[in-house]
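PROTEIN DESIGN WORKSHEET
SECTION A - STRUCTURE
LENGTH: 268
TOKENS:
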């Protein structure tokens, strides 16, 4: 398990990758890591994320209030967006926000990343919707993002950029890389001709691969077993997908075994 200082160092390393890959310009972008339910580390506002050292990193509580920040550093102005993700997705331990060129281009044109065109994008991302535009640093962005949190692990922010979140900082960053690579592929294939999409059979096989890999998160592959029986899938049953489905099964098994014991004792 990493200690707090090691996490800060990792945040600086991820900052370098985000900056060096051109996912942000100048001082843009921000990311955060959950330490526990009331302590979160976040990048400061007004500095280039490519040149941070551990003492740049700030600590906030679940409301985004500063718990610790060295002189001259303040938490990101977008911290409310991060806090909304942690609040509504307890499985998330890290959030990354950036402005990658191609993903942001799609966000500006109002085109979500939904065409299934390559195996890795289907397996890693599923679909990436667009959260409607909100003024930076207001509650408009957290509110817009909130609509998609139960169904997706990455969203485009209309006329702004992209947001990715996962169970670790590295995974959240990789998700952002995948979003950008997918957007770039989609853009270039549209330039060259009409991208060929996978059919349903091919999609089902890719979803099966994701399930076998045991990847967590909200993804079309993680629909509850009801979907296969023609009942509402996770996208229409309030997000009760992979996390709740096995529990539901476990509960049903428990009820069945208790019922059997009671019946046995009653001699029925
Ligand atoms: Zn931004």
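SECTION B - SEQUENCE
RESIDUE ASSIGNMENT:
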């Amino acid at each position: 398990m990493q200690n707090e200082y090691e996490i800060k160092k990792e945040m600086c390393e991820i900052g370098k990758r985000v900056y060096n890959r051109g996912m942000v310009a100048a001082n843009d972008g921000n990311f955060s890591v959950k330490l526990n339910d009331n302590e979160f580390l976040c990048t400061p506002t007004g500095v280039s994320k490519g040149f941070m050292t551990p003492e740049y990193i700030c600590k906030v509580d679940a409301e985004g209030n500063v718990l610790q920040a060295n002189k001259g550093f303040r938490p990101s102005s977008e911290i409310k967006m991060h806090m909304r993700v942690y609040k509504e997705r307890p499985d998330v331990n890290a959030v990354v926000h950036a402005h990658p060129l191609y993903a942001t281009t799609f966000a500006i044109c109002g085109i979500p990343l939904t065409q299934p065109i390559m195996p890795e994008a289907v397996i890693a991302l599923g679909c990436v919707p667009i959260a409607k535009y909100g003024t930076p640093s207001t509650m408009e962005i957290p509110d817009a993002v909130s609509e998609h949190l139960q169904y997706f692990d990455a969203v485009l922010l209309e006329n702004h950029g992209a947001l990715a979140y996962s169970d670790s900082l590295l995974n959240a960053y990789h998700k952002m890389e995948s979003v950008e690579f997918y957007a770039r592929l989609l853009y270039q294939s549209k330039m060259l001709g009409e991208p060929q999409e996978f059919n349903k059979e091919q999609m089902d096989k890719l979803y099966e691969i994701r399930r076998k890999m045991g990847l967590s998160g909200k993804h079309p592959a993680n629909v509850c077993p009801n979907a296969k029986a023609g009942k509402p899938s996770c996208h229409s049953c309030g997000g009760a997908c992979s996390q709740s489905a096995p529990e539901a099964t476990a509960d049903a098994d428990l009820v069945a075994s208790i019922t059997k014991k009671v019946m046995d004792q009653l001699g029925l």
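SECTION C - NOTES
The beta strands are 30-36, 39-42, 58-60, 66-68, 94-98, 130-131, 154-157, 161-166.
The first strand starts at residue 30 and ends at 36.
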